[in-house]
Amino acid sequence: MVEGRVLRMSLRHALIGLLRESPASGYDLMHVFNSSLAKVWPATKSQVYTELAKLADAGLLVVTAEGPRGRKEYAPTEAGLAELRRWMLDAGNEAPTRSESLLRVFMLGALTRDQARDYLHLIQRRSAEDLAAMTAFGEHVDWDREDMGDLRIYGRMVLEFATRLAELSRDWSEWAAQQIPPTDS
Amino acid sequence: MVEGRVLRMSLRHALIGLLRESPASGYDLMHVFNSSLAKVWPATKSQVYTELAKLADAGLLVVTAEGPRGRKEYAPTEAGLAELRRWMLDAGNEAPTRSESLLRVFMLGALTRDQARDYLHLIQRRSAEDLAAMTAFGEHVDWDREDMGDLRIYGRMVLEFATRLAELSRDWSEWAAQQIPPTDS
DNA sequence: GCCGTCATGTAACACGTTACATGATTTG
DNA sequence: CAAATCATGTAACGTGTTACATGACGGC
């Protein structure tokens, strides 16, 4: 257990937050990052395992159980929960957002107009697919299960945002494609 | 001039793309990253200067003019433009997106309900401010200036997306705040 | 006994941020 | 002549990705 200043690093807080719901192993957490959190805060397994080790070393997590194949389940300590709350309330400095798609749109002048239009149609298709996937997911989840805890509320909020965003993206890209004059340059 | 494989690295392509419009110095480019591109692909000056040097070294940019105080203006080479087009058309693997705000929403269970509601109201306020700023910006820009080149079209598209997104965010956060039961836990 | 999944980690490298460091030119 | 702005860069460190490496357990 080592003391140390925590700067940025949302992954840490995501891990503590997930473990707050219930103890889990790195392997379990990976599934969350590959599914529900994939579009919100993706992470690789290297990162998850290393970070869990660091957090345990820093005394923000503890191993609560060990299973077969070296499986280790972690749970947050009181210090970990305190750090999570500190981060949640420190909404002042949020990490900058990046959108590679929008950057590409900004640079579309480097392509022919046909190619540019194709790119916008690609976004449109992907948004429509995302939207369908999320609608399906929303209907598939049993939001009333007891063990969902606060995610009954907050998970649903995130899904709603993602759904509205996919709709926006689909409609915007359709509109945008029409803004490009038909003649090729 | 050195050969080298280009992996991810959108900043490189952003730089080449901006220089495609017209030659500029690192200092000039920084202003773009601090204003119009701030919400799309932020970058620090360290990054910009180092990357310009690397790109010139790799033969993707050339220095076209030198001015006072060591000012250097860059322009893309044919190789640079080719690399830009390659990247534009390689829409398959886009960088993963991250949203710290949504991650926080997912973790709101760590706070009291009053605090959670406050956070959503904060998002609402910020979105409204962003929206106002972008509306003002859109009216302030002279979209018909000749030297805007393709940004007359594509810059406007990005602005339109950002505007719709701010509206979505404002409306969603208002809705979300209402989803939290009034009693404090 | 074979295969799929469970399960954990290390090392090297790419990308991004912060702090440090320096100095010339213009404008009032 | 003072202050603001112009202008460039290096070093250290934090964060994220990819490739490599290993092996146990469960079901058929």
Structural account:
Chain A is mostly helical and 185 residues long. The first copy, chain A, folds into 2 domains: 10-89, Winged helix-like DNA-binding domain superfamily/Winged helix DNA-binding domain (Arc Repressor Mutant, subunit A); 100-179. In chain A, 59% of the residues lie in helices and 6% in strands. Chain A contains 7 helices and 2 strands; from the N terminus they run H-H-H-E-E-H-H-H-H. Chain A has helices at 10-21, 26-34, 45-57, 78-89, 100-106, 113-140, 151-179, and strands at residues 61-66, 72-76. Chain A has a two-stranded antiparallel sheet. In chain A, strand 1 and strand 2 form a beta hairpin. In chain A, helix 1 (10-21) packs across helix 4 (78-89) and helix 6 (113-140) packs antiparallel against helix 7. The radius of gyration of chain A is 21 Å and the shape is elongated. Chain A starts with 9 loop residues before the first helix and ends in a 6-residue tail after the last helix. The mean pLDDT of chain A is 92. Chains A and B meet through helix 1, helix 4, helix 5, helix 6 and helix 7 of A and helix 1, helix 4, helix 5, helix 6 and helix 7 of B. The structure holds a DNA duplex (28 and 28 nucleotides).
